[in-house]
Design brief:
There is one protein chain. The protein is of the alpha/beta class. It has one domain: P-loop containing nucleotide triphosphate hydrolases (Rossmann fold, 3-Layer(aba) Sandwich). Helices cover about 40% and strands about 20% of the residues. The chain is built from nine helices and nine strands. Strands 3-4-2-5-6-1-7-8-9 form a nine-stranded mixed β-sheet, sandwiched between helices. The longest helix has 22 residues. The two termini are about 20 Å apart. The model has no long low-confidence stretch (mean pLDDT about 90).
Length: about 240
């Protein structure tokens, strides 16, 4: 996997995350298109891989994407969940094959939903997986996969099976409320929308919701505010380009 180079401060932050982020704790990453949340997610899950964890990325893109192929070079690509993963299969890109849908939207969605539903059930049964969901809105929206209940359930019962969820979304308001109540760490890109700020208040930051909202609204496009809920550290800024 090619990971974008990062500066010394961010390297230290990622290493600190890896040392304190326990299996079974969930992470949220939100930010506008082009802010760098996908790159940040790669660095986050790499901390789990470096410590012997098993990571599976749910890729929601229906069409072949050379950027995804390049970024996950060296990962095992699955078209559907394997019932008995081998111990060495620790970096998985789950990318359903929708070619038989022949471009029909409803058929594409049906194939994806079947594959991801089976995978959610599989990781919950197996335990001890880290699951990255790369498109939160696409996953939960009734107009697309309509899997809000599956995602919420993974957060609700996942901890008992040491399942760690890493969820990416463009806006905080796109994801179910339970995800914010169960997060141990959040990385939040710039947003000035009041509905997003209300959702972020559920994180329970030690800085308080108003201070946190102001900080997030004023930051640069490529900044993320790291809100560590467990452990209870002050929020700090993460930027991959510095």
């Amino acid at each position: 996997m090619s990971v974008l180079p990062i500066g010394p401060k961010t390297k230290e932050q990622m290493a600190r995350l890896g040392r304190t982020w326990k299996q079974g704790q969930h992470v949220l990453i939100s930010g506008p298109t082009g802010s760098g949340k996908t790159a940040l997610a790669r660095h986050v899950v790499q901390q789990r891989i470096d410590r012997g964890g098993h990571v599976i990325v749910f890729c929601m893109k229906p069409l072949e994407d050379e950027t995804i192929i390049d970024e996950y070079a060296g990962w095992d690509r699955w078209k559907r969940w394997h019932r008995r993963p081998r111990s060495y299969e620790s970096r998985i890109l789950l990318w359903p094959d929708v070619r038989k849908a022949k471009g029909e939207r409803d058929e594409i969605l049906a194939i994806q939903k079947e594959v991801f539903s089976e995978a959610f059930a599989g990781v919950n049964h197996a335990g001890h997986w880290t699951v990255q969901v790369d498109e939160g809105l696409y996953t939960v929206s009734p107009d697309f996969l309509n899997m809000a209940s599956e995602l919420a359930m993974a957060h609700s019962i996942g901890r008992s099976g040491k399942i760690t969820m890493v969820d990416l979304t463009q806006r905080p308001s796109h994801l179910p409320l339970i995800l914010y109540g169960s997060a141990a760490h959040a990385f939040v890109g710039r947003t000035r929308e009041s509905v997003d700020q209300k959702r972020l208040a559920e994180l329970g930051s030690r800085e308080g919701s108003k201070t946190l909202a102001t900080r997030i609204a004023d930051q640069d496009l490529h900044d993320f505010t790291w809100v560590p809920i467990a452990p209870d550290w002050p929020a700090e800024t993460v930027n991959l380009r510095r």
